[in-house]
């Protein structure tokens, strides 16, 4: 008997709509958070994740069956998903929340992603997402999702190679002392570091969505779901009491010698130990 052909791999890429990285952040007048009435775009680390998912398919060719995006948030998240579809993803899922609803916390996001993965008929083999979002900087969703699923995880990835036959991912990841290489069995959760996109000069940035691909993306399917349909409660567990801007920096001054420096330090309230 001939062995049955190996099942093709499916990739899921969660993406977040966040305040654009180039926008100067300001606290809203109520001091309950930042002013969100500004330009939004895909979280840069998630943009790297989409790009790397597309590059994995280009590298592994026929071994990747599909790349699916998922995003949680208000109606405008569909624009973020369309951007990812124009970059090369095949389809998307939008877990839509009311425009006035607060942003879900990492644990709620991880629980929603777990439900999405469970509903995929073809199964999910690789989840690639940004190591953190630039708005809350939590950096927890990938690790929580791996814990909920009991899957392998490789965080802060700067390079990934997939052995399709052995179902093993070899990941080079950033650590404080430099980098380390680990091997993970599929299915696996991978979070992207900035260095992954900067590994080579020729691939220093995620690709721009061309006009033809933008037009094609409009025809790609986006499935709409609600947290209630997934049986997930996205109500935040944490309460923000107050948000305020840091004190404005005061200009420095030059001194002529050490004696003047000591006098200035004493005037500022500093004393010798």
Describe the structure.
Pfam families: ETF. One of its GO terms (cellular component) is mitochondrial matrix. GO terms for molecular function: electron transfer activity. InterPro entries: ET-Flavoprotein_bsu_CS, ETF_a/b_N, ETF_b, ETF_beta_N, Rossmann-like_a/b/a_fold. This protein is an alpha/beta fold. Helix content is about 30%, strand content about 25%. The protein is globular and about 75 Å long.
Derived structural class: alpha/beta
Q: Which stretches are poorly predicted, pLDDT < 50 over at least 5 residues?
A: 200-204
Note the overall shape: globular
Q: Count the helices. How many?
A: 8
How would you describe this structure in keywords?
26% strand, alpha/beta, globular, 9-stranded mixed β-sheet, two-stranded antiparallel ribbon, 273 residues, Rossmann fold, 11 strands
Summarize the structure.
This protein is an alpha/beta fold and 273 residues long. 28% of the residues lie in helices and 26% in strands. The chain has one domain: HUPs (Rossmann fold), CATH 3.40.50.620.
Secondary-structure map with pairings?
Elements: E1 9-14, E2 17-19, E3 40-42, H1 44-60, E4 64-73, H2 77-87, E5 91-96, H3 106-119, E6 126-130, H4 141-149, E7 152-163, E8 168-175, E9 178-185, E10 188-192, H5 194-197, H6 211-217, E11 222-225, H7 227-230, H8 258-267
Parallel strand pairs: 1-4, 1-6, 4-5, 5-11, 6-10, 7-10
Antiparallel strand pairs: 2-3, 7-8, 8-9
């Amino acid at each position: 008997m001939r062995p049955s052909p190996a099942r093709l791999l499916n990739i899921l890429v969660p993406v977040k709509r966040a305040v654009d990285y180039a926008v100067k952040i300001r606290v809203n007048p109520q001091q309950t958070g930042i002013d969100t009435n500004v330009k939004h775009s895909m979280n840069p680390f998630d943009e790297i994740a989409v790009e790397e998912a597309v590059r994995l398919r280009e590298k592994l060719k026929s071994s990747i069956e599909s790349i699916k995006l998922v995003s949680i948030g208000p109606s405008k998240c569909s624009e973020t998903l369309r951007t990812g579809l124009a970059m090369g993803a095949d389809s998307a899922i939008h877990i839509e929340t009311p425009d006035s609803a607060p942003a879900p916390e990492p644990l709620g996001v991880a629980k929603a992603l777990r439900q999405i993965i469970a509903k995929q008929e073809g199964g999910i083999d690789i989840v690639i997402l940004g190591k953190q979002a630039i708005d809350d900087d939590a950096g927890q969703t990938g690790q929580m999702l791996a814990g909920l699923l009991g899957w392998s995880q490789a965080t802060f990835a700067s390079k990934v190679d997939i052995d399709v036959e052995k179902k093993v991912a070899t990941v080079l990841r950033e650590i404080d002392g430099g980098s380390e290489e680990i091997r993970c069995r599929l299915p696996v959760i991978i979070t992207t570091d900035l260095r992954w996109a900067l590994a080579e000069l020729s691939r220093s940035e995620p690709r721009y969505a061309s006009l033809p691909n933008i037009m094609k993306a409009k025809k790609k399917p986006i499935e709409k779901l609600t947290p209630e349909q997934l049986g997930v409660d996205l109500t935040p567990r944490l309460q923000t009491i107050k948000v305020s801007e840091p004190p404005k920096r005061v200009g420095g001054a030059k001194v002529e010698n050490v004696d003047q420096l000591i006098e200035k330090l004493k005037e500022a309230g500093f004393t010798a130990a």
